[in-house]
Amino acid sequence: MSLAASCPRCTSPLRQGDEGWTCLLHGLVEPLWRPDKVDYETFAELIGRAGDLPTYVPWPMSPGWSISDFGCVAGSAPSATVTTTVGVSDLDGEVEVSVVAEDPGVGLGARVAGAKHTDPGDQVGVGQPAVRVRADGRTVPMWVVEVDSGDDFLGSSVFAGEADGRWLWLVLQPASAALLLHDEWLLADVTGFGPNALEMPFGGPRPAW
After folding, report:
1. Would you list the DSSP string of 62-108?
2. How many CB atoms lie within 10 A of CB 129?
3. Is 199 helix (H, G, I), strand (E, B) or coil?
4. Terminus of the chain with fewer CB atoms < 10 Å: N or C?
5. pLDDT confidence of 180, banded at 50, 70, 90?
6. Please, what is the end-to-end C-alpha distance for the chain in angstroms?
7. DSSP 8-class letter at 128
8. 208 contact partners, CB below 8 Å, separation of at least 6
9. pTM (two decimals)
10. Does residue 177 sit in helix, strand or coil?
């Protein structure tokens, strides 16, 4: 199997038993399926597991950018997807952008962002949004989610909003890369790409999440 199961809320491996998949820290969970090798074949397997759940990537990608990781939370039904793209900007050097679409309560977005709570919660919807993106043709307002970057002096910028009843998370590293998010920054759902999916580049450093 090219996609391996792990906990959607932490980096712990899972045990499969009669009741389902169990994490030592979080108990019974729906598994996060993530590849050992990032390539077109494993990405196609991800799309198959995701079903109708959107899987977003920044599109079109700038020259030199690539997809370095991806995953899908799916047990009885898919509940979350994540992609990470990496590249270089003139101002920030190496940049990493992760996009998570998930049902409430899954916790994958919080894991990728390093947030304390499963959902972004009260930080979303208060005051004016910090940025707006276009997700598969729809404008999605997004608010800043405060996270503790620990010893990482470059930190990350985290934004979250709601799209079609699901949480949409954007996590950018370093934090200064948030300047890339000009109005109407475009995210495309790759499940509708068809033959264009063959044009997606894969590779680059894997993210820490």
Report:
1. PTT-EEEEEEEEESSSEEEEEEEEEEEETTTEEEEEEEEEE-TT--H
2. 17
3. helix
4. N
5. confident
6. 21
7. S
8. none
9. 0.94
10. helix
Q: For the segment 32-42, what is each residue's pLDDT rounded down to a tens digit?
A: 999 999 999 99
Residue 137 burial (CB count, 10 A): 9
For residues 209 and 111, is the Cβ–Cβ distance under 8 A?
A: yes
- Any idea where the domains of the chain sit in the sequence? 38-199
pLDDT digits (tens, 9 = 90+) for 2-17: 789 999 999 988 999 9
In contact, 148 and 114? CB cutoff 8 Å? yes
Contact 111, 9 (CB under 8 A): yes
Tokens of 130: 């910090």
Length of the chain, please? 209
d(CA 15, CA 112): 22
DSSP secondary structure of 28-53: EEPPEEEESS-SHHHHHHHHHHHTTS
Dihedral of CA atoms 111, 74, 133, 98 in degrees, nearest 10, equals 40
Are 46 and 20 spatial neighbours (Cβ–Cβ below 8 Å)? no
**Among 176, 138, 126, which Cα is nearest to 54's?**
138
